[in-house]
Amino acid sequence: MRSHRFYSPIELIVGQSIQLPKEANHHCIQVLRYRVGSEVTLFNGDGFDYHAQISEINGKQGTVTVTSKENPANESPLSIHLFQGIARGEKMDLIIQKAVELGISQFTPIFTERCNVKLDNKRLEKKQTHWQKVATSASEQSGRAIIPVVNSAVNINKLKQDHECLNLYLEPKATSRVQDLPKITSLNLFVGPEGGFSNADLQALESLEIRGIQLGPRILRTETAGLASIAVLQSHFGDF
After folding, report:
1. Residue 9 belongs to what domain range?
2. Which of 104, 169, 196, 207 has the fewest CB atoms below 10 angstroms from its CB?
3. In whole angstroms, what is the distance from residue 15 CA to residue 189 CA?
4. Helix (H, G, I), strand (E, B), or coil: what is residue 139?
């Protein structure tokens, strides 16, 4: 039977015994009611899964011994950095969760002209921490041993040019499509907020030599556009 998998934010070494982290401990000992000898899988984002066995339960605290490690080898050969126009409500959580499941390597929220979300520095810091937790949980659920980084939000006018990979933004009126692209191994993908990119946003992107690409003749919601694009890109150049 497949063991449950939990994030453990510490260094993991085969042969060591460690106390289960708070959330994993609660789920294993109090929810699943695991006993000594039960097997669990831990990961910390270093690219490996660590198989462990519960060796002791003291009160409500479980201790596990790490028995082996393995590389799950499920990272895509296509590295996608998603730049997402900040959306309202829980849409950002959904976008991050599903984008991680689909295999992105990095995520950066961007403020655009039509972004209706106003966040001061303190709230923005809390949001980033929350979004990183969403990415971690999505990695845990999807079996990824590497956790995509959620970067600090940046204004679209302060983006820097990146010559190391292909740079694309989604635009319904663009003439290029995914099938027109050369074979790629890494790209930055820019997705607008609700209402899309404004003319000023497009000028900022094009000044950095970021090219437009379209995903069919229909206008997609912001929470659909990026995810659909990632799936198509993974199908053409990744591991779908």
Report:
1. 4-70
2. 207
3. 42
4. helix
Would you say 148 and 106 are in contact if contact means Cβ atoms under 8 Å apart? Answer: yes
Between CA 165 and CA 188 the distance in angstroms is: 7
Same domain, 183 and 152: yes
The verdict on 50 and 86 lying in the same domain is no
List CB contacts of 189: < 8 A, sequence separation 6 or more: 80, 81, 82, 83, 168, 169, 170, 226, 229, 230, 233
**What is the pTM assigned to this prediction?**
0.94
Give me the amino acid identity at 146: I
Torsion of CA 50, 54, 59, 61, to 10 degrees: 0
Q: Alpha helix locations (H) across 74-221?
A: 91-102, 121-142, 199-207
pLDDT single digits (tens) 117-144: 888 888 899 999 999 999 999 999 999 9
For β-strands 149-150 and 106-111, DSSP reports them as parallel
Residues 64 and 177 in one domain: no
Largest alpha-carbon pair distance within the chain?
Answer: 64
